[in-house]
Amino acid sequence: MMNQTTQKAVSAAQAGETDTIVNYKPAYITMGVMLVFYVGIRIYEQYFGWKAGLDSFAPEFQTYWMNLMWTELPLEFIAFCAIGGYLWKTRDRNIDAVAPREEMRRILTLIGWLAVYAFSVYWGASYFTEQDGTWHQTVIRDTDFTPSHILEFYLSYPIYIICGWGAFMYAHTRIPQFAKRISLAFLMFFAGPFMIFPNIGLNEWGHTFWFMEELFTAPLHWGFVFFGWFALAVFGVARQVLDRVIELSKEYEKDALAL
Amino acid sequence: MSASTETGSPAGKTWKSKEEFLGCVILTDWILLVILFAVLLGSFHIHYMLLAGDWDFWIDFKDRRMWPTVTPIVAMCFAAAAQSFFWTRFRLPIGATTVVLALLIGEWINRYDNFWGWTFFPINLVFPSALVPMGFWLDIVLMISGSWLVTALLGGLGWGLLFYPINWPVLAQYHQATEIDGVLLTLADLIGFNYVRTGTPEYIRMVERGTLRTFGKDVVPVAAFFSGFISMLVYFLWWNMGKWFSTTKYIEIEEV
Fold this sequence. Notes:
CATH class of the domain at 98-259 in chain A: Mainly Alpha
CATH architecture of the domain at 98-259 in chain A: Up-down Bundle
Strand content of chain B: under 5%
Distance between the termini of chain A: 48 Å
Distance between the termini of chain B: 25 Å
Structural class of chain B: mainly alpha
Helix content of chain A: over 70%
Radius of gyration of chain A: 22 Å
Number of strands of chain B: 3
Largest sheet of chain B: 2 strands, antiparallel
Number of helices of chain A: 10
Helix content of chain B: 55-70%
Shape of chain A: elongated
Number of strands of chain A: 1
Largest interface: A-B, 91 and 78 residues
CATH architecture of chain B: Up-down Bundle
Order of helices and strands of chain B: HHHHHHEEHHE
Number of domains of chain B: 1
Oligomer: heterodimer
CATH topology of chain B: particulate methane monooxygenase, chain B
Strand content of chain A: under 5%
Order of helices and strands of chain A: HHHHHHEHHHH
Number of helices of chain B: 8
């Protein structure tokens, strides 16, 4: 009797779980973890930036900064490959048979991915990038791999790239409208900010020729601006997502308009 | 994996009930707005800091000529693009105010946490320029006129003209003249000289210089009018950029 009750409860719970149309909890948790992580990084930076980050030839710089960079870069590469590989490996191979409710569930999951991507874009493009300006105008750099760069270029940028890659791959492998063709807006929304990372090559190459830290608005930095513009393709992605939500919700159109 | 399953809803239906639909849509609308806000914050901030940042970072860069010229022009780009999206697609006259608010949130967090918290510059050296009243102006012109052409012409000009007056109440005190060791300079200059940065040297600082100074008190109106003129042109361009980035086109996989 006891066993039957438990089984029923488990079945009900499973049914409820699979039938949940929207679950943003994983996105909230991811953003919470990211927030805690970045606050921790900021505290590390506060302490070891001044204590061990002023002279790149000093042994403590190697210990506290270069080791951090050589740790984060491989981990990021592994995470990028793992997320892309997992999403591709587990892709829906019968995408034409996705039922409307399941499609809606996946669209809402994609919105969770996009929320995480947006949050990571804030940290990379806003928080750590402007921070770099004040550090380099204060502490004269003697290397391309400065404390602010190790956290900006080689941590916060790869993290938002990984999040954007995850969102793009999730859509491409699970949502019919994004699986059969490539959304131009989504491609720009992911690839534009992604290109900021290779642009670091131009930036640092230029900095090895010209000091160019006197002004943050130096033309050498404008490559970042150009690729940053492509994040505006979030407009097109939002439209495509909303258009499909409307199509799938025709029966409640009047209720939505009455809101 | 084949996860194309459906449980709990009527066959072929998306929603189990109207309540489920409404609850989900309202929540998701809010999340989409937060996504738009965060992405606009990030992309506008990187654009703004790398095209107008130095004038916005430091009080001794906030002069009467370059700052009121460069800053509104650079800020207009994202204001116009956001208006294009929110107005054309949703008839919401909130685009300009939303993006400048997003930018200012990103800037204030940075100025406190990093400029002050990490590199120890006083806030009165590094506070950002005010932009919100300009956002109100641009959105109100669009709302009342319902025309992006009128907004470009009237709103764009006002955008440039408003910048200096709305910042003046905070800035005026730093433009008080002072004399140190026989040198006449402003209080803003004095603060700047006391906190040496790579941008401190006079040959680097892009502030008012040259023949325009001979116009004396007319420097600001001339700069503001010029800024308004360019802002009009920028508005045209970036309204269309906003439209272009709102594309819903798809590319065939074979073409990629």
